[in-house]
Amino acid sequence: MHEPSPRLGPAFLLAASELGMASTAHLFVREIAASGGDELVREAALGLGRDFPVLGCIATRWLAGERAPRPAPDGVLAATHGLARLLVVGLETAWLDVLLPACRGLEIGLLIGDGDSSADFRRVLANYEDLAVGVTLAELHRWSGRRSGLLCFVYGSDGHVVRVPGAWLRVSGPDVRTQFAALIGWNILGAAMELYPRWLAETAASDFSTIVEP
What we know:
This protein is of the alpha/beta class. The protein is built from eight helices and eight strands; from the N terminus they run H-H-H-H-E-H-E-H-E-E-E-H-H-E-E-E. Helix 5 (93-102) links the parallel strand 1 (85-89) and strand 2 (107-111).
C-alpha cells in the first residue's frame, strides 16, 4: 500500500495560500490519482483529511465519482444584478478564473491583508490584471454603498450553518452588513463537510442575502 508523502501537507498549504483550499485540493487529488490511482487518493483522504478537511472532502468525493469542478458564474452574476462594485472575501482561483472575465461592467476587489502574505497576493493580482484590484480592510468603507456587494466563498452548508474563510467574520458585522446592498455566499462544495472545518469558520446561512449553490 502506498503512503502519501509527508511533504504533501506543507506543499498543500503553500499552494493554497495562492490558489485557495478547494482549488488546490482539486489539483492535488488529480495529481495524486495520476500518480497512484484511487488507492493513493484513499490514503491521502485518510492521512491528510483531518489536517486539511477540504482536501479530505474533495478526495472522498473523487472516490465517489465526483471529478474536476465545473464552476459556473451564472448564479453569482444573477445575484450581482444592479450592482456596480463587488468585493470578494476569500480566494479560490478555479472559481475566480471563471467569474472575473464574466463580470463585465462590474468593478471587482479582492480582499487582502487578512492573514495572507502580501507577496502571495501580488502574484495573485498579477494574474487578474485589469480584472480585479486588491482591497485592504482599511479601504472597506470605500467599497460600500447602495450598489455594492460582498461575495464570500462558502465551503459547504447544511442549510443552516455554512463554513467560510475567517476573514468573513471580520468584514460581516452588523455595522458592515447594512452598508452593502447584497451579501452573496458562493457555495463551492455543496453539502457540509463531515470533518471539523479546520482553517475555516462557521456562521449562519442567514448572514447572507443570497447563497449560490454549485
